[in-house]
Amino acid sequence: MMEIVETGPFNTVQDLGRPGFRDIGVSAGGAMDPLAASIGNILVGNPAGSATVEVQTFPFKLRFTVPSVFAVTGADGNYLLNGKEQLSWSARQAHGGDVLELRHPPKMARAYIAFAGGVDVPLLMGSRSTALRGNFGGVEGRSLTTGDILLLGADGDGLPLPTDGLAAVTPLRAMADAFPPVLEGVLQVRAIPAGEHHLFGEDAEAFWGREWRISSRSDRTGYRLTGDPIKPVMTVEMRSHGVVPGVVQVPPGGEPIIQMSDANTAGGYPKIAGVIEADLWRLGQARPGATIRFVRSSHDEARRVEKAVAAYIEDIRQTAPMVKRALKAMA
After folding, report:
1. How many CB atoms lie within 10 A of CB 262?
2. DSSP strand E in the chain: where?
């Protein structure tokens, strides 16, 4: 059990979302960086989809009221436990009364705190994720507030809990060959041309060639981009169609919108591209004001990167139990 001591707006309980309900207007939602949330859970002995705390406004503090095992993943920079800096992407033991503090990360946008057993909030439509627009899920469908008490569930795998030493190599370091580097401060985001790409004529090529800045009006639903507008060469009447995370739509103003975790379930703006799924977690770690460039990709490349991510997760999943058993043997 933990008590929230300090928090800002939009910090919520999130897991990997509730897919399968878009036909009734319910977005899948879930963590903006599902890779970080998954790895944190594996490190503490949970299934990858257990509920975590997603922190996107800092500082954030909580107090453990009982002994717990936790891991902080996602954002760069280390956190504090009782005022002492600790290594992220590793499982640690907390005692009753310990205070965990997350400071503003140097570059990235979101951190995830996974707890052995998972955060115990009601399960709705197969998920514990908070849907802020729908006001359901998580803790009463809202952001966490000071004084909230979070309970722990029973998602752990029953293996002995480590006090130290169980850590993961960060995704960008472990999969350096699978993800393009940030070039001169510009995040390279791979995408595939979408259904209405051809309607933009020369502006379609401009879309790929220019840099876009993530607007301060961005949120979990979508990232609004600012830059020289692009416009279709013809007016086409479009019916509303299904939308998923990663779809890049162009509203009449000409500045694209990338649908994110809480993506609308349907929309009528033309689709110029779709970000490959394996790159969405990097977007989830991009702050408002960050600059991105779209890189034309392919289905084959998307599958190749997905396999690299799956292999990374599986390697940690296979390694974590062995390390736990070794720690028990040395105790």
Report:
1. 22
2. 2-6, 12-14, 52-55, 60-64, 68-74, 79-81, 84-86, 91-94, 99-102, 111-115, 149-150, 186-193, 212-214, 222-226, 241-242, 247-249, 257-259, 266-267, 271-275, 291-296
The vertex-51 CA angle with 7 and 58, nearest 5°, equals 20
Residue closest to 223 by CA, chosen among 189, 199, 200, 198: 189
Which residue is associated with the tokens 């998602």? 155
Q: CA-CA distance, 239 to 223, in Å (whole number)?
A: 22
Task: Label residue 207 left, alpha or beta by phi (over 0 means left) and psi (-120 to 50 means alpha).
Answer: alpha
What the chain holds in terms of domains, given with CATH numbers, is: 2-171 (no CATH), 186-297 (2.40.100.10)
Residues contacting 230, CB < 8 A, separation 6+: 200, 203, 204, 206, 207, 250, 254, 256, 272
Residue 82: CB atoms within 10 Å: 12
Burial bucket for residue 293 (CB in 10 Å: 0-12, 13-18, 19+): middle
Amino acid type, 318 = Q
Please give the DSSP secondary-structure letter assigned to residue 250.
-
Q: How many CA atoms lie within 13 A of 67 on its CB side?
A: 4
Q: Please identify every stretch of the chain with a pLDDT value under 70, giving residue numbers as ranges.
A: 155-165, 237, 321-331
Q: How far apart are CA 51 and CA 73, in angstroms?
A: 14
pLDDT in tens, 246-262: 999 999 999 999 999 99
